Every structure is written in structure tokens, then in C-alpha cells.
Fold:
Amino acid sequence: MSQKTNIPLVIFGPSGVGKGTLIKRLFAEFPDQFAFSVSHTTRLPRPGETDGKEYHFVTQDKFKSLLDEGAFIEHAQFSTNYYGTSIKAIKAVQATGKRCILDIESQASTQGVRQVKQTDLNPVYVFISPPSMTILRERLRGRGTDSEEAIQRRLRIALSEISYAKEEGACDYIIVNDNLDIAYSKFRDVALGNPIDGDTLPPLDD
Ligand SMILES: Nc1ncnc2c1ncn2[C@@H]1O[C@H](COP(=O)(O)OP(=O)(O)OP(=O)(O)O)[C@@H](O)[C@H]1O
Structure:
């Protein structure tokens, strides 16, 4: 693996834009070249989950001590649970020769990205944009995983994520996920370390 593709790749963008879909396709095409890092969480394991596989399951006290030690490059709290990405977990992926993909948690992706920017990780940042807000809403509805209230909340958060992406230097690449095959081919190139012509952010004022 070249040095370029050992740099972690941060993928962020509004919930429902298709990040998971793109990453799933990448992992399916290149099972030996990419991996997620294993995050820490204070939530309890669900049936079938194994410590160190889906998550590193830790107590609130342990999480806080890791946080104080500066172990996490980003962390967030969702309801009463904490989640964090440790530098050690990213290094563990790099040690396997795979490129680490960081799918920054959608509910607070700009918060996570801002935190990562404070560290010396220096990943490549890819923002996945919807073609329009109308299409983002349709995808969230079409996915069928959220109530209408949750969809409205995700759309409000999306607006702040989009305004962050518009800031100078917020991301290295913008990929508009309109046609999935075209978006995937660009995402695949970035992931493989090939240069691409990034997209221009659509107005997203609908
Ligand atoms: N280019 C596309 N055209 C049409 N539908 C798409 C496209 N990309 C993804 N979708 C669909 O949009 C929905 C949302 O995609 P996905 O769950 O991958 O989003 P996400 O960004 O990972 O969301 P979250 O951050 O909430 O996990 C899914 O139903 C997916 O099949």
C-alpha cells in the first residue's frame, strides 16, 4: 500500500446522503484494503456483539479517563452514552496495511470533523453532498428507518453540516451523490488515492 493510501479517510455529510451505501460498496469491492476503526462506547453490548469487534465496551469512568489522557481524536455523547474514536484504534487498522475509513457519526458530523482537525491525524476529508434538499428528504423517507419528526431533525442538522462544508478548507473533496454509480466511482478513486475532479457544492437552498 502506498503512503498516500495509508492516510485515514474521513467521510462526512448529512444523514441519509448515502455515506453508508458508498462505504459498503467499497468494502465489498476491496475487502482487504479498507476497514473501520473500532470505536469505544459506554453503551452496553447488544446480543451478539463482542468487545473489541463492533466496539470497545468501556465503563463511563474508563471512558472519562481515556478522554482525560487525550486518547480520542473525536468523541460525542448520544443520549446518556459516550462514543469515541481512539488514535490507537486507527493505528491498529494502519498496522494491518488497510486504509482506515472514518464515517463520522452523522448526528454531529461537523462537531466530530472539527475535533479531528484539532489533532495531528491529517486525514483526507470527503464531504458527500445531496443533489438537493428535496432529494435528501426523499432518501430519508425512502430508507424507512426514521419517524417524520426524526427526519425533520436530521434535515435541520443537515443544513448546518452543509454550511460547514461551504467554509474554506472544510474538506478536500466534495462528491455529490446524485447518480450512485458516478458518485461511487469518484469515491472509489479518492479511497484508492487517485486524484479526482471534485464536484461543486449544489445550492441546496430548496
Ligand atoms: N445515489 C443514490 N440514489 C438514490 N438513492 C440512494 C443513493 N445513495 C443512497 N441512496 C439511498 O438513500 C438512503 C440513505 O442512504 P444511507 O443509509 O447510505 O445514508 P447515510 O449517509 O449512511 O446515512 P446515516 O448517516 O444516517 O447512516 C438509503 O435508502 C440508500 O439506499
